[in-house]
Write a structure and sequence with these properties.
By secondary structure, the protein is of the alpha+beta class. Helix content is about 15%, strand content about 25%. Strands 1, 2, 3, 4, 5, 6, 7 and 8 form an eight-stranded mixed beta sheet that branches. The protein has a three-stranded antiparallel beta sheet with strand order 13-14-15. The structure holds zinc ion.
Length: about 290
């Protein structure tokens, strides 16, 4: 499966129907909205207004994963899982693979083609999470941002502008490691020792650890910058935590979300306690 632009199909190319999109190699499946596999990542998506939870802002799309519906176009009847095509899009995020976006005529009025389908260029999946959809069941959500010809990301459209810290406009999915006064304090309390594995990385200046906001700051998660919402982690465990490979139970037991095994109890430090409400939020929104 080819990633990136397909020769002979520049941005703006129109197609009469899904069969034509498929024949061009721009989006092979005839029905599925996501093309790709969990192993390789997703090469393309179709945005056609099929999901009530999709939000199309043009250069920024909040796209909903597949599955959990009672038939094509039906309402959400169960939780979506981060597997199959949904895992493919998550992989595209982690590996920063470009995703071809095709819009259909039933999509958002401001951005849809008048008829049929149109190839609208390459996008980058900049984040993903799970949240309750309009029908109340968990859906997988993906933020996709348009990649410009110079390789940078298009600015976030005003309508999609979050009230929180401005998003980064770089072609990378490198996670933001935020250092706030609260983070510094938590790292101090733990002496830069990772609360998951106990590693304390020594550096010539002092030590190195990262502060992980359990419920992330900014839209759409709006977690608070308070000590009870911060963990002191090594970079490896920080990445595993952010991507949902490890989660915490309400009693702060560390679980390997992939193996389903226990990794023991979260390490504590005098003066720092973690609020189980944030831990629950993380578990519900980021575990596989
Ligand atoms: Zn660690």
């Amino acid at each position: 499966m080819p990633f990136g632009e397909i020769a002979g199909n520049p941005e703006g190319t129109s197609y009469a129907d899904r069969a034509a999109v498929r024949a061009a190699g721009v989006h092979p499946p005839l029905q599925a909205g996501i093309a790709g596999s969990a192993k390789t990542g997703a090469e393309s998506i179709v945005v056609s207004g099929g999901y009530e939870d999709d939000d199309d802002y043009g250069d920024l799309i909040i796209y909903t994963g597949a599955g959990g519906r009672g038939g094509v176009g039906g309402p959400q009847i169960e939780d979506q899982k981060l597997e199959g095509p949904n895992l493919a899009l998550a992989r595209s995020c982690v590996e920063a693979l470009p995703v071809r976006v095709v819009r259909g005529a039933r999509g958002e009025a401001a951005f849809r083609p008048p008829t049929g389908y149109r190839y609208d260029g390459l996008y980058l999946v900049t984040r993903y999470w799970k949240e309750p959809g309009q029908a109340g069941h968990l859906v997988c959500r993906y933020e996709l941002r348009k990649i410009l010809s110079d390789g940078s990301l298009s600015p976030v459209p005003p309508a999609a502008q979050p009230p929180g810290p401005p998003p980064r406009a770089r072609l990378t999915t490198e996670r933001v490691v935020r250092t706030t006064a609260v983070v510094r304090r938590v790292k101090e309390l733990h002496g830069n020792r990772c609360q998951v594995c106990g590693t304390a990385i020594k550096t010539p200046t002092d030590g190195y650890a990262e502060g992980a906001h359990i419920r992330p700051l900014g839209r759409p998660h709006d977690g608070p910058d308070v000590e009870a919402n911060v963990l002191c982690l090594c970079p490896n465990d920080h990445a595993r935590f952010d991507y949902g490979a490890i989660v915490l139970t309400d009693t702060l037991e560390i679980r390997d979300a992939l193996q389903g095994t226990s990794l023991g109890q979260l390490r504590t430090a005098q003066g720092h306690s973690v609020d189980p409400r944030f831990v629950r939020y993380h578990r519900e929104h980021f575990s596989a």
